[in-house]
Amino acid sequence: MNLRMIRMLLFLVAFCLPQFSWANAVLRGKVIDEATQQPIQGVSVMILESKKGTITDQNGEYSITLPLGDYTIRFSAISHYNLARNIELTDNLTLNISMRPLVNNLDELQISGRRDDANVRSTEMSVVRLNIAALKKIPVVFGEVDIIRALMLQPGINSVGEGAGGFNVRGGRVDQNLVLLDGAPLFNTSHLLGFFSNLNPDVTQDATLYKGNIPARYGGRLSSALVLNSKSGNTDRWNVQGGVGTISSRVVVDGPLIGRKLTLMAGARVAYPGVIIKLFPDLFEGNKANFHDLNAKLTFQPNDRHRVTLSGYRSYDRFKFPADTLFGWQSGTLAMHWNTFLSDKLTTSVSLLQSTYNFQVDSPKQFTDFTLTSTIRQREANAGLVFSPTANHKLEVGTGYIQYRISPGNLAPQTSESSIRPLQIETEYGGEFSAHIQEEWTINSSLTLTAGLRYVQFKTLGPYTQYAYEAGVPTSPETVQDSVVFGDGQTVQTYGGWEPRLALKIGLGSRQSLKLSYNRSRQFLHLISNTTAMSPVDFWKLSDPFIPPQLSDQYAIGIFRNWADNSIETSVEGYYKDISNLVEYRNGAELLLNPYLETSLLSAFGKSYGVEFTVNKNKGRLTGSLNYTYSRALISTKTEFPGEAINEGEWYPSLFDRPHVANLTGGYNLGKGWTYSFNFTYSTGRPNTYPDGQYLINTLPVVNYSRRNADRLPDYHRLDMSFSYDTRRNREQTKYSVWVFSFYNFYGRKNPYSIYFTNYRSALRSYQLTVFGSIIPSLTWNFKF
Amino acid sequence: MKPTISRLLLVLSLPLGILMSCIEQIKVPVRTEAPILVVDGGITNLPEPYQVRITQTGTFNLPSEAYEKLAVRNAQVLIEEVESGRMVSLFPVETEPGLYRTADPDFVGKIGNSYLIHITTQDNKSFQSVPERMLAAPPIKSLTARFSDQRAIVNDTPFGYEIFLETDDPAEQENYYRWTAFGYIRRESAGVLTFGGNLWYKFCWTPVFDNSITISSDAFTNGAPIREQQVYRSPIYTVGKHFIEVRQHALSREAYQYWRRFNDQRERIGTIFDPLPSPIIGNIFNAENPQERALGYFSATGISTKRLIVPGDTLSTPLLNIETSRFIAPGDCRRAFFQGSEERPVGWE
């Protein structure tokens, strides 16, 4: 970049701020992506001379107060080329920057938090940002790049097993993650029952996971917020990129539709696991499986002040047994965002969102043929503004309303011959109002406070039938004594309250800081599932008079320190979480199509705590990250009738309680376009329930499981590696291919997926099921032209 | 629903893992907990001795040794009829440890009455069941048999008659069903060569039964006829007649839920979509401390029965004769097979 270009990017602010000091001035501006012209969040802005720094917000904006003088300012982001600018600060100055996306920064490969000293400087803690560009080179199973699997290499994130859908954050359940795609929540993140995630990495611009210290603008889930933004179309030229792999192929097209004002991005991913099924006709004759997902985004930017985006997403899965049951499940979102940049201090945003999830089961069996469907729909409207009067203050205010509609189960015969009677479980309605305010206040060079407060009110709305149960005995369908019917739109139950979100950074010198945070969240929507992993026929349930909202308080403390010119980042974070009103299930609970669902549920308390150690090396030919987590996640059921309690009401480990987890990921630049990468992961086996006695009923041997989760599977560990070859020889090359040869489970460890017990010729035997029990090589070709 | 999802995953995991997924037998250390009392039995409206099996949890390798090992001996067992207050004792059966049986031929369960069991063990602990009202079972409308050849499934005999039941479900109440069946089939052995040069004891009748738990609820089909309900599979070892008796039990809702949980727990196939392992709690509790639950169930069920005689001559015998020749046992048929008898079972035809 030459000076002329720099000057083009600079212009002086016409309006001056009231200044507190003659000697100080404010430097502010906006950072956008050169290709997509979209703002970039999380760019580290560093003043080299004073070692001061800041980070761009979700609108790509930053501001910093400096004494007048000459400075070199360095902008760095994980997914873009770093740049530096020299300025002469004589008055308040706006410096807008456009950064070039990292197409092939051979020095950088791995996922990490933000670049440079951002992890020391900001109040942010418990945050993971994925470098989507680098994901393609990490070794993966069947060559399928997977955002959720990449997250699981980060501290505090795990799952119940290989191939299980969803993920668990700091001892939270899968339904406690708010997964937002362009602002709209996804109710299911799995393809093929959880073997793959349904998030297409090629269309994803950025992925940020908040494990704690969740910003006040996000609510409704206890454990985390995974915020994914899809790419906008390129304003200058049309691009086609994609990839061909063993299980699926992807293609993304993007470019300008009308000048630079209207752009389109459209992506599709189609899987063909059927090809593999066909290789084994004897085993899987007649079985059919397929999935696909589609993304599209229109971006309209008539001028510098307004930006409107319209995006849509759909994922589709189907699985069929020969002449038997057909399962299908679909997710979809629609999102409209309108952002207005009123001045460099004030931006507003308005959004309208819709999310749906539904599943169907079709059984053609003669005389009992049926179709079972279940759907959830959420519609949401939000408005907010961000006001930054001075460099030391940033104020965010917003409000929103969510309308829920859930049809938990609808059973219908397919033909008139069927004995199945139509049954529809009452549709649930709910409304959630929220408002939030958050202030980020830089008190002085070492103290920064982010104080957020969210108010939320949830209403269960009619039509609703509330059953009254006999007092003094455990509730059951037999103890229904009366029922009250609520009419359309009538308020059945109101829940809600304040949710403080606080974070404080205390700088301890220029290279280290101490951070503290406190976070309260409520959750009004619960996933009803009595299996170890999330399954496609799990359904959602709103809070009602019997099911109060889940409530969580999280306290976290962390020490962050960078070494060797920020090339090595280290951190230690500890957290403690207190959860109440978790939904648990009575032994042998009947969930699906149960009109008295509350009689199958129990309320439980949860607590989880842990400490996470992280070391990242971000520069040099060898980059990588090492983390270790010690954590526990425990549950205790509290019931009115002690006989109903699980494990007598004592604390017992949850299914994803894995005390020791260590991950090592790395990449080494071999030169000439070749990169070697590896992952190693180790974790304590997940809790399991082994039998503690056998008996006979009707001459059938039965095993007794009296203590839930009292045993554990053997430890899990795995090494993956990959070699990738990039045909690019320089940064300007626009047409290129990347070949990835990857080896999943390199040393063929037979990690147990489950251990189960069965009677073989009436003797009890235990078996271990391993899913990916040997080395899995794969080859993927990614292209861009 | 849940086992189907599990199966779905299992089928799916195989193609995905190609031959990388695997199931291996392993040895798992089993924790030992204090033994828990297990009660298995009930009363019906049929005039026959009622029996209850009382055991406790433990470990065993073969079910044949289990009853001997786990039997609870010298317990006092009584069945109480709530309406009349009548208490009837059950006496231990000498040859079968842990089995207790009524001896009063006048004591027959009555539809509409409620029954419970009282058990006092040797160490003076008292257990009882939640009283259960005996419901009337609707009559079985018809039974049909269909020849089936399951050569694809590993089994001792691939041939059998699938027995299907049809019945009319009463619309005015919730109904829960359980079906049990037993039968007599022909078996063939090499026979015994007599002095006259004849082969004797070459064919005999042998009783067969199936101990799987077949249950159904009318929750989703109330009032609609139950059709094509598979209730039993009568195995074919040699071509011949099959005598089959099917019993239709009217279960209480609690009993139905018990057996449903029982089947759920037994149908685990190892995927993470299986229902979570849990103890199967029935209706037996400690009389002094109701929080202490025993395992098993004491039921009171109304029964309707229907018999079916399958002629057996409808099959294309030459092929079947060849295929079933491997089931011909050596020696005397009466000794080669369990309770083998030359006499046609009493009461049939």
UniProtKB/TrEMBL annotation, chain A:
Question: PROSITE patterns attached here?
Answer: TONB_DEPENDENT_REC_3
- Asked if Hydrolase is a keyword of the record, the answer is no
Lineage, opening ranks: Bacteria, Pseudomonadati, Bacteroidota, Cytophagia, Cytophagales
* Presence of the UniProt keyword Transmembrane in the record: yes
Q: Which organism is it from?
A: Arundinibacter roseus
Q: Which GO terms describe its cellular component?
A: cell outer membrane
InterPro entries listed in its UniProt record: Beta-barrel_TonB_sf, CarboxyPept-like_regulatory, Plug_dom, Plug_dom_sf, TonB-dep_rcpt-like
What is this protein's record name? Answer: TonB-dependent receptor
Its record classes its membrane topology as: Multi-pass membrane protein
What keywords does the record list, in alphabetical order? Cell outer membrane, Membrane, Receptor, Signal, Transmembrane, Transmembrane beta strand, Transport
Cross-referenced Pfam families, in alphabetical order?
CarbopepD_reg_2, Plug
Protein family membership: Belongs to the TonB-dependent receptor family.
Provide the TonB-dependent receptor plug domain boundaries.
145-221
Query: Coiled coil: which residue ranges?
Result: none
Q: Name one GO molecular function term.
A: siderophore uptake transmembrane transporter activity
Task: Tell me where in or outside the cell this protein is found.
Answer: Cell outer membrane
From TrEMBL, chain B:
Please give the superkingdom of this protein's source.
Bacteria
Give a single Pfam family match.
DUF4249
Entries under PROSITE patterns matching the protein: PROKAR_LIPOPROTEIN
| Listed name of the protein | DUF4249 domain-containing protein
Q: What is the lineage of its organism?
A: Bacteria, Pseudomonadati, Bacteroidota, Cytophagia, Cytophagales
